[in-house]
Amino acid sequence: MRIDEIRNALHAQPFQPFGIRTSDGRGYFVRHPDFLAILPSGRAIIVTHSQDLWDVLDLLHISGIHFGDGHRGRVTGRRRR
Fold it and tell me: Domain of 13: which CATH number?
């Protein structure tokens, strides 16, 4: 995954919510552009969640992004047990 792909999704007009899938199978959903930050080096991103929680994702572990509404086939940072 290239940082340009994430940057393009983040700055798209109009913004479309998108999901991020990591190499370990976890998923993160970006509902609004304010919920994702790209580090100046472009090597990692920060995805925020509700209740002031956030995750730092190294670009090398991001396997892809997809677009959708987040309700059907929703991806989250935690797996069901």
Answer: 2.30.30
